[in-house]
Amino acid sequence: MKEKKSNFSGSIGFVLAAAGSAVGVGNIWRFPYLCAKDGGGLFLIVYLALVLSFGFVLLTTDIAIGRHTKQNALKAFGTLNSKWKFLGYLTFLVPALIMTYYSVIGGWITKYFCTYLVSDGSILSQDSYFTSFITSKVSPIVFMLLFLALTAWVVYRGVEKGIEKFSRFIMPGLILLILGIAIFSLTLSYTDANGTVRTGLQGLKVYLYPDFSSLTVKRFLGVLLDAMSQLFFSLSVSMGIMVTYGSYVKDDVDLNKSINQIEIFDTGVAFLAGMMIIPAVFVFLGTDGMASGPSLIFISLPKVFASMGAIGRIIAIAFFLMMGFAALTSCVSVMETLVANCMEIFHKSRQKMCAVIGIYSLVTAVLICLGYNILYFEVKLPNGTVAQLLDIMDYISNSFLMPFISLLTSILIGWVVGPKLIIDEVERNGEHFKRAKLYCFMIRYVVPVVMLILFLVSTGII
Questions:
Q1: How do residues 279-335 score in pLDDT, each as one tens digit?
Q2: Closest to 238 in 3D by CA, of 342, 91, 96
Q3: Chain center to CA of 409
Q4: How far apart are CA 175 and CA 108, in angstroms?
Q5: Least C-beta-crowded within 10 Å: which of 25, 41, 82, 101?
Q6: For the chain, which domains are there?
Q7: Which of 267, 284, 314 is nearest to 202 (CA)?
Q8: Closest of 107, 102, 21, 97 to residue 398, by C-alpha
Q9: At what angle do helices 217-235 and 41-50 cross, to 10 degrees?
Q10: For the whole model, what pTM was predicted?
Q11: Residue 1: what pLDDT?
């Protein structure tokens, strides 16, 4: 089989690029909220267990399929078994849907970062500011364009000169920023109007201490489903990204070691995100301050920064710079997957396909922006939540397609192709796959059952 011309230069470049894809805004605005909602340390324990079991299985499968076939996701599954090529088309849909709104969120982050750069940012802490911003007709589109242009530029430069070089610079910076802000959060203290003193260390206890009070089977299942859904957000699995990145990995790279490093990177950043946000929000807003999704980043945290006084602006600039790094590395991986697949479909150059995907991303992102004003509507999703355009795209990609794709992939590898193919790929260079037995058991018996349950729950069937 002909070797692909585009490759990561080595294991470090691959790990940083893959970790950059995995570390996105989902880690930072979703992980802390779920942790606060689901009993602090209880969620952490469940999530860590899932990372070491399900996360490792799904990540190993995607990356090994990519390297074994030297194909992007669109053709990789058909290469394994011609009757399963439809699975490649399903995986292509996920990044195609995610790309419609990810640059919009990146634009929001860019707006907040720029506002803190040129002002004290006090306007951002007002209750109505975020709503007035996203419902305006021009400003969200302008900042989305800035973010999308930078994303397209990185992808345009290619795998080694673009994605890898960018990740080598951005990822260490992201880690240093998030670590610095997390440490600073632990030093905070605040006395409210009632004279109650709240400290960052008390917030850390809220974050780490497992809350087993009123633990029931129903509550535990809720925590389990939250942690599992976060796993998809966190590891970029079942969306073709890791298959595509795996196809760029050279044969002499130790996959076993690289996958372990990606797991550590991603889980470590998610943990630090919780340590960064939960203590800070607890100090200034109490236990009721944790909001879900964008509200946490764009409404709750600006209030926290405003309460810090003069240093709050500096911390806010560092925070939104870090958020921008996280969003950019993830958006680059999504666009790269689309570009790489389209290069194989149409047999055109990277530059031409990057232009085409860029135009697609621009048009669809503008529609998402207009979904908050001119095109605004609400529908009730099968899982019971009320959604508008961005939420619909997110639901279809993350709650519907990704569990379904994981279910089908586990059946393909576990029962059709056989797990030995993946194990042999991991052990290609003679390295021992220590978790091979666990992998076989999980991919054949556990993953299909759990993915089916998660799919049925997320679609409202059960």
A1: 988 888 887 767 666 788 898 889 999 988 889 999 999 999 988 888 888 898 889
A2: 91
A3: 20
A4: 21
A5: 82
A6: 11-380 (1.10.4160.10)
A7: 284
A8: 97
A9: 60
A10: 0.89
A11: 38
